[in-house]
Design a protein that fits this description.
GO biological process, one term: pyridoxine biosynthetic process
Distance between the termini: 53 Å
Shape: elongated
Protein name: pyridoxal 5'-phosphate synthase
Structural class: alpha+beta
Pathway: Cofactor metabolism; pyridoxal 5'-phosphate salvage; pyridoxal 5'-phosphate from pyridoxine 5'-phosphate: step 1/1; Cofactor metabolism; pyridoxal 5'-phosphate salvage; pyridoxal 5'-phosphate from pyridoxamine 5'-phosphate: step 1/1
Strand content: 15-25%
Helix content: 25-40%
Cofactor: FMN
Organism: Lepraria neglecta
């Protein structure tokens, strides 16, 4: 046991190598570790984080050059190969680099790269190294050390026959896994999302991208020619001398037949390195569709519109194929995503722990957590009755897979379960269960569900597996909140949802810009223009929805609520409400000022209004009140807005009785008078701001303020974002 031990009940060992033995160092990473662990209540979880978060840097960076050194063997390579920054990231206890693993191993450092030039260089080098691997052998999944590194290669000890042929001194293993290519794209996408840099978009990267597109085109082909019906040998075949059926492809290395016209892409192997049964592997297709879309956005920003369109077309084809062929009806769970399909109507219903998986579809960014098909699928794969590889025993439960047999589940699956949950109790339980299996201070590949001391691989690079998914793939702030939840300091937790789940970066605003010459001299005219645009063809759902904020004096206490804008005239913005008992009524009585905020997500615009308030006359209020539905008119009389409906006195029944009384009072009366305490409120603006979202949070903002010397009485100024 390596000391010092953690101060929690598990007394977990310290598993970091001494500083002079670490393969890469980052002062910023050390700072993050110190900051996060010092604030974590669960000291055993803190030790797991301390051991695992820096593990990639501590142990797996076998070669890195920052681009200033001259590679001694460059003369042996074609023009441009192995130039610039390079990084060779091994998977852990195997001296080889997997495309998938190295992307995942670096993911948790992406957020730090903008503030740490060494990390930025390391990740950019990893992109460049993956570029060379993809160009040379795009069908392969694991690679030997780069030739310029001088690091010796290793044999995998297998007897494989593969087409296309590869050079064993360059390739460790050549199992074609679609997600490997998706992870290549993901590495660059994450780098750009975190740093804003397009430095990796060089000639070699574009060559690798075109190589990926060629593979996608080749692997979208069916087994039999759609016109002639003749068998067409696949570009990729794999045969291995083995007694394990999951280690090789059937039918002379071609795999089972796949149907035409699906839009899906074949994957010969799963991310577990097990052979697919039906070659259209849905999780990898979903990941590829997402990453193609993300890459296309980067290409458009780089002026590569034609290439971006090619990616978008392929992504759209894959996505449509998933929804058409990858969703099946289950007699118990309803519509669910299949794990694999063949385009002929056959499907495999299961899930494997390795990512990409069906469980991780929201993490990948393919669907929202609340998507009904996903919710049905999640329920299915987290039950023994629905997923043959959901294993449950005396000591542990989780998803396993054929790679490790029928008694071992992967701790990684419990962390993906936590990442796809909004239930505090479920998240806590998942974290605690993984913590309790990590007796060595680092997580295992898999553990026996009846005896956690029986595990596979005493050590494997934790970031390769995302073994502490919540802990490793999120920002330190989110980690801190999560571990506090695990310590029962909070029963609820909201992770501020990023648009991009893969990188935890918020979506970029790209739908428009705003320039001074586009603005009307009057904010009323400008608002009318924007509001009409938002309304047109349903671009924005209920654009009249507005947040009104008021503040009471002398306390200054602010309150906000959403209402509907009902009128706009040459004086101001009009809403209607209760002005007798509501909180906003009492606020305005002491402080007749208010602000309005409109948010139109679909067009990436917002409008803010600040000004004084004035009540509309009874006649003006009656004109609108008379247009309301009868039930709403009755409700205005019945509700003493914001007053307590005491449960011990009947709660909701009190309100129902009042409604009934008002209905009896006005029975047979069509013209119900507006209550004296109810009516319109006009916000007369003194300031109006128009905001248009822009990329990198560099938004366009223009503020109108009253100025009698300006055109139409308003001065217009651009504000810094």
């Amino acid at each position: 046991m390596h000391r010092p031990l953690s101060k929690g009940p598990l007394a977990l060992p310290y598993q970091r190598p001494s500083p002079h033995c670490r393969t890469f160092s980052s002062p910023l990473v050390e700072e993050v570790i110190e900051t996060v662990t010092s604030r974590m209540v669960d000291k055993d979880l803190a030790r797991i984080f301390e051991n695992a978060f820096p593990n990639t840097l501590d142990t797996t960076v076998r070669w890195h050059v920052d681009g200033t050194e001259k590679h001694s063997q460059r003369k042996h390579h074609q023009d441009g190969a192995w130039e610039g920054m390079q990084s060779f990231i091994v998977t852990g206890d195997i001296n080889a680099e997997w495309l998938r693993d190295s992307t995942n191993q670096l993911a948790q450092y992406q957020h730090l790269a903008k503030k740490d030039k060494r990390l930025e260089s390391l990740i950019l080098g990893a992109i460049n190294t993956q570029v060379e691997y993809v160009i040379e052998s795009p069908y392969c999944n694991a690679f030997q050390p780069p030739p310029p590194s001088g690091v010796g290669s290793t044999s995998n000890g297998q007897d494989d026959s593969v087409h296309p042929a590869y050079e064993p001194s360059r390739v460790f293993e050549c199992k074609y896994e679609l997600d490997s290519l998706a992870h290549f794209l993901a590495l660059g996408n994450q780098f750009h999302a975190s740093t804003g840099s397009k430095a990796f978009l060089n000639t070699r990267w574009y060559m690798a991208l075109n190589t990926v597109l060629e593979v996608l085109m080749e692997q979208a082909k069916p087994t039999f020619n759609p016109t002639s019906g003749r068998f067409e040998k696949n570009e990729y075949q794999f045969r291995r001398v083995t007694d394990r059926g999951t280690e090789t492809l059937s039918l002379a290395g071609n795999g089972n037949p796949l149907g035409p016209g699906t839009g899906l892409i074949r994957s010969a192997f799963r991310p577990s390195d097990d052979a697919t049964i039906l070659g259209f592997f849905i999780p990898a297709n979903a990941m590829m569709a997402v990453e193609l879309n993300r890459t296309a956005k980067i290409l458009k920003s780089a002026g590569k519109d034609a290439l971006a369109e090619k990616l978008l077309e392929r992504a759209d084809s894959i996505e449509k194929g998933i929804w058409e062929h990858g969703v099946v009806d289950h007699k118990r769970y309803g519509k669910v995503f299949a794990y694999e399909v063949d385009g002929y109507g056959s499907s495999i219903l299961m899930d494997d722990a390795n990512l990409p998986s069906l469980l991780a579809l929201p993490v990948l960014g393919f669907v929202d957590l609340n998507n009904e098909v996903y919710k049905n699928t999640r329920k299915m794969i987290l039950e023994r009755e629905g997923n043959p590889y959901y294993l449950s025993g005396r000591a542990f439960s989780g998803i396993g897979g054929p790679h490790v047999g029928l008694q071992h589940a992967w701790p990684m699956s419990r962390l993906v379960q936590a990442m796809t949950s909004d239930n505090g109790d479920e998240i806590r339980q998942c974290l605690n269960d993984v913590r309790d299996t990590s007796k060595l201070g680092l997580t295992h590949e898999s553990v026996n569900v009846n005896r956690v001391t029986d595990y596979t691989r005493s050590w494997v690079n934790p970031n390769k597996l995302i073994p502490t998914g919540l802990l490793m793939r999120v920002s330190p702030l989110r980690l801190l909140r999560t571990t506090r939840m695990a310590a029962n300091l909070s029963s609820k937790l909201i992770f501020a949802p990023a648009g991009d789940k893969q990188t935890q970066q918020a979506d970029q605003y790209t739908k428009g810009s705003l320039e001074r010459h586009q603005l009307s001299p009057s904010p009323f005219t400008q608002f009318h223009t924007w509001f009409t645009h938002a309304q047109k063809e349903g671009r924005v759902h209920q654009p009249e929805t507005v947040c009104i904020s008021t503040a009471s004096l002398p306390s200054g206490s602010v309150s906000s609520r959403y209402v509907y804008l009902k009128e706009l005239d040459a004086t101001g913005f009009v809403i209607y409400s209760n002005w007798g008992t509501s909180r906003k009524a009492s606020d305005i009585q002491s402080n007749p000022r208010a602000s309005l905020a409109f948010w139109w997500h679909e067009v990436e615009r917002q409008v803010r209004v600040e000004g004084r308030t004035e009540r509309l006359s009874n006649e003006e209020s009656q004109a609108y009140y008379g247009l309301r539905a009868r039930g709403s008119r009755v409700g205005a009389w019945a509700s003493e807005q914001s007053k307590v409906l005491a449960e011990e006195e009947g709660g909701r029944e009190i309100l129902d009785k009042r409604v009934k009384g008002v209905e009896e009072r006005f029975e047979g009366v069509e013209h119900i008078p507006v209550p004296e305490f109810w009516g319109g409120l006009r916000v007369v603006p003194e300031m109006v701001e128009f905001w248009q979202g822009r990329e990198s949070r560099l938004h366009d903002r223009f503020r109108y303020t009253r100025d009698q010397n300006a055109e139409e009485g308003w001065k217009i100024e651009r504000l810094s974002p």
